[in-house]
Design a protein that fits this description.
- The chain has about 350 residues and is an all-alpha fold.
- It has 3 domains: about 50 residues, no CATH class; about 150 residues, Four Helix Bundle (Hemerythrin (Met), subunit A); about 110 residues, Four Helix Bundle (Hemerythrin (Met), subunit A) (Up-down Bundle).
- Helices cover about 60% and strands about 0% of the residues.
- The protein contains 17 helices and no strands.
- Helix 4 runs antiparallel to helix 5.
- The two termini are about 40 Å apart.
Length: about 350
Amino acid sequence: MRLRPYGDSGPLAMSFAALENYLLTQGREWERYAWIKARALTGDAAGLAELVRPFVYRKYLDYGAYGAMRELHAQIRREVARKDMAENIKLGPGGIREAEFIAQVFQLIRGGRDRSLQLRSTRDTLARLAELRLLEPDAVREILEAYTFLRNLEHRLQYLDDQQTQTLPSSDENRLKIATSMGFADWHGFLDALNAERRKVTRHFEQVFILPTETQPDHPLSALWRDIAEQDDAPARLAELGYTQPDDIARQLRTMAASQRYQQMPLTNRKKFDALLPPLIEVAAHFGNPDITLNRILGLMEAISRRASYLALLTEYPQTLQRLASLYSSSAPGLQLPDAPPHPAG
């Protein structure tokens, strides 16, 4: 019941109209994840599914789902550490939840454009991802093997005392029961196999969810953008990069940093924006018309600064920055940027 709209303070029952209004105005990212597996027990099941579908499955490719799932996973990890739940095969490292997240992040990103991904079953979703080549078949096979192992183990843990638990037993008697029921002669042999399966899940989870910038140190130009308002040597640094009018570029960057649009940007958007500006400054400098290229890019960045989906796309796929700069460098001189570009369609 605590998962209902507005949590403990919300009504136990509400109309479809009230639920729709809640999802539109208050719905959070973790609720999109929860609704993937939700199903109606009675009443107008089809009507409920149609009402919730646009909330869960967006019409555009929603790359912001990566960040939302990362944050949710980080919260779970902190809770696991706080409660010393490393032995929990569902919430602990390499557990059931991580395997489910791998499947469901693709559903949240692409499910609105590909209805074949609008599935409740994790196994069916993973199989479909292999068919679409969104995940390599070998990776899907390993994830499914580990997921099946973990689910079978979860059932046996719950058989022990008929309890809703996912925690490994502590007594030698119950450990031997679990090991033998899973087809192993002893606890140590079983534990080795379990850890191997959990490592598979963790490896694939990290490959899907790792943020490119997390594997790299701060960009060399991060300080230039971060301290642009106070840096007197910014024009000299820009000139070294190849800009022909470094004073104008530095002035433009300072104006952007001091603008109301930037200052009032949502925190999550600003973090992405700040991470993107340094590499864009560097990339634009490599073209024959760096000043014009960066000028156009800054106009675009300002226009999309409140579009989290665009910023997420550029953050998750940094290789698009080179393509973006190439397009703006070769565009006609009179190019006008749109004030509010549409959501990304591909």
